[in-house]
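Look at one record.

>
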Amino acid sequence: MSKILSLNPYSGVIEIQESQEIMTFVQSQDVNLSEPVEGGAQSGGFGGGMMIWMILLLVMMMFMMRPRRDKEGEKFRNSLQREQEVVTSSGIFGKIKDIDDVSVTIEVAQNIKIKVDKRYVNPVPTAQPVAQPKKSKKEKKEDKA
């Protein structure tokens, strides 16, 4: 007598059954893999429908990955002037000393100048006020006391 462990996929219950039968797997026909099967499913790798879906997915990814224009950044970079305070994208602060079509020369300390690509120059951020957390009713009563 042998025990068989079976799982019912609908109920998710695992059952143990005892059986006297011996299960054997026997191939009933000889199979020749060198000859094509007649009347069976067509073998073509990807089906035509699958190929269309792959192409559509590729086109969608191309549109999602394309670079976007930074219009505000372009306006700022076109209006750069000498002695203007700027910060590079790597976080270096300085004043513009010379501007050319592609690059900007920035003075980061007295008599220390670096040449940076115009695309990596940004305006100096201004300090934003920090919002104070709202006090609860209990804290307001304690402050009054």
Observations:
- The two ends are 84 Å apart (CA to CA).
- The first helix runs from residue 48 to 65.
- The mean pLDDT is 77.
